[in-house]
Amino acid sequence: MRRALRGASGEEERRVALRATRSDARVLAASLPRSPTTWVLALGSLGHPPTKLPLDKVLEQLRDYAALRATESVLRGAPGDEARAASFVAVLRNATELHQTVVPPDVALQEGLRSMRLRTEASRLPMIHDISGGCHTVDIQGHDKDADDVVADPDEATGS
User: What pTM value is reported for the model?
Assistant: First the structure.
């Protein structure tokens, strides 16, 4: 890029050379982070548009990159970085809203469930008898709450 600008003598030639180098696919690919989206952009600048662009993946990368650049702007603290960070936060907000409209909720739910892992233990499960010490019942019927039916001493109920 500098070599092309060095050969330019006038201001008009300098602008033309700058425009030509900025639209060069190699310069574009070198200036962006390494990702599948970068390849799509570089190929598009060469005249090969993508046949099917995974919009959900592009928006995820856009969100990640906007969050990273907003953090960078806040941490740097140079003049004008607050406005730059606010712009990246707006991009982040818009990309998140767009991503929610592009990705169907069931797909997002499936991805969330896929990421969850259940913890398991290899040890033997304890039996109910071990836990309760033998003080448990297998009776699953409901009990009446009438005062007449309540017997304080089980021996009285049997008449022994």
Answer: 0.47
